[in-house]
């Protein structure tokens, strides 16, 4: 395969969750009728700020996904920035050159989080989830924390940047304790998912 071509694709919460569910191996082909790809992360992040973080459909968050693909495939699909239908996206998925990676995450003020349906985090919004995980850390329940991360890895991955950027002082959690919990999450995440890195490049609006 030739040197890969890098594109940047803005997605909302549901699409990002589907990407996590695919183990970062493909973009969801039926999430919408048109899919936009940009040559630079700045272009993709501009769309995130202009549209996704204000949209209920995107759950008030936008992620920029780094996509590496065979350049011959891109040449056959058209000029950048690309707008692809689902059939063209299927072609792109078949020619990915490596796993998808998150470039950045931007959360709007109305973001409530990816809300799991099982285990301790079930039904909890993003801030409540962090406090539940802190309770496990404070109690020294490393096994419970590791189990929760494994069981609800999609919520952990999607909400983690928000926890990095958000302060929890009003909930009684100072910056030192916050960093202790973030470090613990990273530790147990690395044990469970060594090939997937939790990212800290976050903007809260």
Structure report:
- The radius of gyration is 18 Å and the shape is elongated.
- The chain folds into two domains: 5-107, ADP-ribosylation fold; 126-198.
- The protein is α+β, with helices and mostly antiparallel strands.
- The chain starts with a strand and ends with a strand.
- The chain is 43% helix and 16% strand.
- It has a four-stranded mixed sheet with strand order 1-3-5-6, sandwiched between helices.
List the keywords.
205 residues, elongated, 2 domains, ADP-ribosylation fold, alpha+beta, four-stranded mixed β-sheet, 8 helices, two-stranded antiparallel ribbon, 43% helix
Summary?
With 205 residues, the chain is of the alpha+beta class.
């Amino acid at each position: 395969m030739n040197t890969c071509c890098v594109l940047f694709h803005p997605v909302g919460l549901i699409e990002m969750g589907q990407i996590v569910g695919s183990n970062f191996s493909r973009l969801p082909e039926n999430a919408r009728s048109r899919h936009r790809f940009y040559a630079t992360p700045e272009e993709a992040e501009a769309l995130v700020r202009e549209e996704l973080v204000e949209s209920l459909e995107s759950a008030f968050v936008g992620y920029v996904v780094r996509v590496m693909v065979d350049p011959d495939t891109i040449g056959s699909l058209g000029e950048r920035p690309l707008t692809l239908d689902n059939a063209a996206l299927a072609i792109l998925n078949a020619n990915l050159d490596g796993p998808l990676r998150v470039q950045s995450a931007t959360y709007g003020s109305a973001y409530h989080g990816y809300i799991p349906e099982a285990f301790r985090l079930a039904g909890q919004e993003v801030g409540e989830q962090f406090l539940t995980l802190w309770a496990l850390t404070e109690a020294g329940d490393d096994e419970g924390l590791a189990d929760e991360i494994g069981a609800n890895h999609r919520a952990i991955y999607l909400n983690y940047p928000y926890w990095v950027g958000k302060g929890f002082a009003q909930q009684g959690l100072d910056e030192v304790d916050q960093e202790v919990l973030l470090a613990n999450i990273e530790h147990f995440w690395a044990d469970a998912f060594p090939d997937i890195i939790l990212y800290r490049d976050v903007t809260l609006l």
